Amino acid sequence: MTDLQQAPTVDVDKLMAFVLKAVDEVGATLNTALVVLGDKLGYYSTMAAGPVTPAQLADATGTGEPYAREWLNAQAAGGYVEYDATAGRYTLPPEQATALTDPSSPAYLPGFFQIALGTTHDLDDVLRAVRSRTGLGWHEHHGDVHEGCERFFRTMYNAHLVGEWLPAMEGVVAKLERGATVADVGCGHGASTVIMAQAFPRSTFTGFDCHDASIATARARAADAGVADRVRFEVATATDFPGAGLDLVTTFDALHDMGDPVGAARHVHDVLAPDGTWMVVEPMAGDAVSDNLNPVGRAYYGFSTLLCTPSSLAQDVGLALGTQAGPARIRDVVTTAGFTRFASVAQTPFNRVLEIRG
Predict the structure, then answer these.
(1) If I label 35, which of 9, 112, 193, 340 is the partner at 20 to 30 A Cα–Cα?
(2) Is the CB of residue 312 less than 8 Å from the CB of residue 319?
(3) Residue 309: count of CB within 10 angstroms of its CB
(4) Is the pTM of this model over 0.85?
(5) Among 234, 162, 223, 174, which Cα is nearest to 202's?
(6) What is the pLDDT of residue 3?
(7) CB 185 within 8 A of CB 248
(8) CATH number, domain with residue 71
(9) 135 and 247 share a domain?
(10) CA-CA distance, 38 to 55, in Å (whole number)?
């Protein structure tokens, strides 16, 4: 007969430290909604012009003063705005103003909060999917997921795509400048497609996505940007989009969401020209779980659980690579599909850029 295992001793100081950490987490969770609220009501953009009282903020935005007051206090408690108790005014510091009001800044963050809020909106549906071991399609998510995704990733594409990522790949920019045929697979609202078309007017681009509503938005984006003459958008999956002899195929932050990434890679291999390139941009990740135990990895694992893995499981095959798949897993996918050259050629804190050939 063995002795009963003694219950571990609880360190009260560690327990209370964890409780306080949890309180901070709840405040951060609520702040996701408060940031989206402040963005949509114009609170941040109004504050970028200078310090305000609650009454002034409410008057400038046509909103209720009690809401403006409580929102400002929550933002001050979280360090998003500064409070001057003597004057009773609240100030949005220039750094926060850049991150929360300037869409041209590579640090622009409202879209990131919007994706997160939209993702948590669908928790009941994700619970059903987890319990039934099924999935939840991208098209089934709240609209904030789709709009926030475009806003957040477009910021990074504007900052890095033309100036850094494309030049990092052998011979690609020269082809685009001469006139190349490009397919942007998993294009969503078309931000990446439109940015490339604006930079390379001699090339032609087709964006493909399986989400009808996203394709409709992408067509409107192309028209607004004045590139509809050389950009078109079509509904198609990554395993059946049309094309042959393509110079460049791009896939931005979408491969890990696919149900059959190996099948998609095989199809890309088939439609590329012999000297063509497949550019894959994926969330920044290392190969080991321990590589990703950091703030960016934490956010991405959260999105993976609630958004990306359910999306993959809702599709045929349902490989569920996960948002933090890492380069070794992606290499295995593309080499299984027949590609022979694979290199990580650029990265940011949020993305890794992969060059895949032949």
Answers:
(1) 193
(2) yes
(3) 24
(4) yes
(5) 174
(6) 55
(7) no
(8) 1.10.10.10
(9) yes
(10) 15
Pairing of strands 82-84, 89-91: antiparallel
Instruction: Please report the DSSP string for 129-150 in residue order.
Output: HHHHT----GGGS-HHHHHHHH
189: helix, coil or strand? coil
Would you place residue 347 in the very low, low, confident or very high pLDDT band (cuts 50, 70, 90)? very high
Which pLDDT tens digit goes with each residue over 153-179? Answer: 999 999 999 999 999 999 999 999 999
Instruction: Please identify which residue in the block is written with the tokens 């697979």.
Output: 185
* DSSP letter, residue 52: B
CA atoms within 13 A on the CB side of 235: 9
CA distances 27 to 23, 245, 252, Å, are: 6, 52, 32
Are residues 218 and 298 part of one domain?
yes
Residue 4 in this model has a pLDDT that exceeds 90? no
**Domain that residue 39 falls in:** 12-100
Q: Are both 180 and 314 inside the same structural domain?
A: yes
CB count in 10 Å sphere of residue 244: 9
d(CA 52, CA 112) in angstroms, rounded, equals: 26
Task: With a cut of 70, say whether residue 308 has pLDDT above it.
Answer: yes
Q: How many domains does the chain have?
A: 2
Domain containing 344 — which CATH number? Answer: 3.40.50.150
Q: What is the DSSP pairing of strand 204-209 with strand 272-283?
A: unpaired
